[in-house]
Amino acid sequence: MAGLLACLAMFASDVGADLPEQTQRDRLRVCADGNNLPFTNEAGEGFENRIAELLAGDLDLPLEYVWAPQVMGFVRNTLELRLCDVIIGVAAGYGFVQNTNDYYRSIYSLVMPANADLDVSSLDDEDLQGRRIGVVSETPPLVPLRRAGARVEGYALQTDTRARTPAREAVEDVAAGRTEAAVLWGPIAGYYAARQTPPLEVVPLVDDETDARLDYRITMGVRQGEPYWKDTLNDFIERRQDEINAILVDYGVPLLDRHGELVDPLAASGGQDDE
Description:
The structure is a single chain. It contains 9 helices and 13 strands. By secondary structure, the protein is α/β, with parallel strands linked by helices. It folds into 2 domains: 2-12 and 23-104 and 215-268, Periplasmic binding protein-like II (D-Maltodextrin-Binding Protein, domain 2), CATH 3.40.190.10; 109-204, D-Maltodextrin-Binding Protein, domain 2 (3-Layer(aba) Sandwich). Strands 1, 4, 5, 6, 7 and 13 form a 6-stranded mixed beta sheet that branches. Strand 2 (35-36) and strand 3 (40-41) form a beta hairpin. Helix 5 (166-176) crosses helix 6. The longest helix is centred in the N-terminal third of the chain and has 14 residues, at 2-15.
């Protein structure tokens, strides 16, 4: 089956440029992982599910998902095969898709118990030395944590989410005391930290002084050669930004403004600073 998908993907890449862009749609077809909270799941419980619902309502189209584990080959086996038409969350600059305008910006964050004796605002902080810190392998915080002398506990980056969710496990290990803290992508940190008993503290690393890139702009991803569809989604993002922000705040996503400053969650649904 995997070989067939690979062959179909190659065929789609060859002929895609010759197909005219579809300007009339009878449904909103979203490429998504069916077990990838806080982003998406098949029960519709993720924030990207809610944004997809908002988009479908705005377009007055029924919503349909194409589910696939978000591992290597995800874009090739979904969007490029024209099984679906949009990925709701893609980092700006991701080369396998055409990016819309960004609709949020977030940052890697430190997750730790509220009563922890850690006082850390940067990944080169001396207080990290010797501390057992969880981090997802191959993500930007890994190298500076090792430089700081932290005892790094690694969690897999590429995994079939139907079997396990390493980032959630990283937060649960902090809650259970198996690690002292974890450094994770902000939306994951905020969501799972709030669901521990008691809730864990989340410190967005906006004051980090290392050379690691920790903040990213998030867009929607569409196929190359579909300017009309991209413009349609950009129009939606512009008009419904406040509602999108409110959804993100509901899920505890640390939001940054256009200057890279942390946005007050109480003010976020009124619109981010666009200056």
